[in-house]
Each structure stands twice: as structure tokens, then as C-alpha cells.
Amino acid sequence: NAGVMQNPRHLVRRRGQEARLRCSPMKGHSHVYWYRQLPEEGLKFMVYLQKENIIDESGMPKERFSAEFPKEGPSILRIQQVVRGDSAAYFCASSSGTGGGPQYFGPGTRLLVL
Amino acid sequence: TQLLEQSPQFLSIQEGENLTVYCNSSSVFSSLQWYRQEPGEGPVLLVTVVTGGEVKKLKRLTFQFGDARKDSSLHITAAQPGDTGLYLCAGAAPGTYKYIFGTGTRLKVLA
Fold it and tell me: Which residues of B touch A104 (CB under 8 A)?
């Protein structure tokens, strides 16, 4: 009964490199959400996806950030040309439906940009 | 813009004491969740409340959703060191999936 899985747990990148964060939702869940958490702050919504569709990306920076949730495989959050300000914990959550149903979170990926 | 304010921000108490954490907004939410997050981990769902006035109990934790569905409280009885962590409330506006997270309450229970 695996929960939400994220990898890698820790990622170190130099400025200008690309970061790829992966999220496998709970079994039976087809809705994925990405959040960012800065140290000592709450979680900020980034993007909501269903299989092969981006439903809402209003919380995601328009440049350098992209997300996908293909028919097969995990959801990917991609950050191109990372900058130091991208350093944060990125959490993925999944749910079985929409309309405010419970979201279950993964352990997060901690990105450090040097 | 919907905001969820939590109070207090920080709380340090002795084992055995009781405490209440508040989550307040001027907006109505269709549901509200409480999570606990430990360092280096993701938030773990504690409870979901959906009905105004609803009260749910989880062992020593009691959760209440305000009658107007704009606020919630978490009460812990006889706190234990294992209760230490960051407590987050998160609300979903009616008809949406987008969670708004509260500012968080950092609880430390001393043995």
C-alpha cells in the first residue's frame, strides 16, 4: 500500500542546470498537485494535473518551470536554468478526485542550487 | 486572495499540558484539512472536516470546523513529546481543488 513517492529526495544543482523532480501518486489516484515550501514558510500551490492534462498552472512561474503527467509514468516537475532562489522543498500530493477532496503528500524533494 | 491565518505561530509547552491551535479566514471553505509535518518529511493528513460545526476526534486531538466554515481549531489534550511538529491547516474554496495553506504552528512539547 505505497503512498505518494517522490524522487530524488535531495537534489543539488549548480546555477544554470536543469532539475527534474518525479512524483508517483498513490495507487488509484489520477490527480497530482505540486507545491513549493520555502524554509520557515507554508506550502504554496504551483500546478494541478490530471493524466495528460494541466488543469491549473496559475501558481507556477511562467518561465523555466514546466510540469507534465503522462499517460504512463510519474509526474515530472522540470526547472530549467535553475537559480539560487529555486532552492526549496518541492512536494507532490495526489488525490482520487476533485472538489477539495483530501490530498496525500509525498516526502518531498529538497532542491539546493549552488 | 484567500488567506488562512494560524495562531499561535510558535508554541512550546510541557508534557501533559493542553493546547489549542486556531486557523482563521474571512473566506468560506468547502472543506478544511489539518496536517502535521515533521522536519524533512511531507505533511501527513490528520483529518478532513466538511460540515459547519463539525467536531472530529482523533485520540487526544479534537478538531472543530466553524459554523460558517471560515475557521477551525485543533485542541490537543495532555500533549506528549511525540506531538511535536508543524501543524498546518489547508482549505479548499467551494468548487475548487486548490488548497490554501495556513501559515503553520510550530509546536514543541518538552518532556
Answer: 45
